[in-house]
Amino acid sequence: MSAQPDHIPAVSAPGAAAQLLAELRADRRAGTWVPAFEQDWARALDDARHCYSLAPLHDVVRTWTARLAAAPTVDAFLAGGCDDSDGIDVDQVLGARP
Description:
Helix content: 55-70%
Largest sheet: none
Strand content: under 5%
Distance between the termini: 34 Å
Number of strands: 0
Structural class: mainly alpha
């Protein structure tokens, strides 16, 4: 009996993270988002080493992909002059950062 997984993720977390980091660097928010992503990624790597699971890495990629995908919608909302004082924290929607 082998210890091979019965499924293989479509995209590896490190490969997806590199692609995502390139997209974050190209975004106008790169000054704040890149350091935050790198901090989240470093924390997830440490967690993955301790729990022998890639789940923390996949969580970071999934969370930051969702943030990047939502950014144009948020920009459009704010540019439209809408009142955002009754908004909720993105972590409530996407979950807390790992």
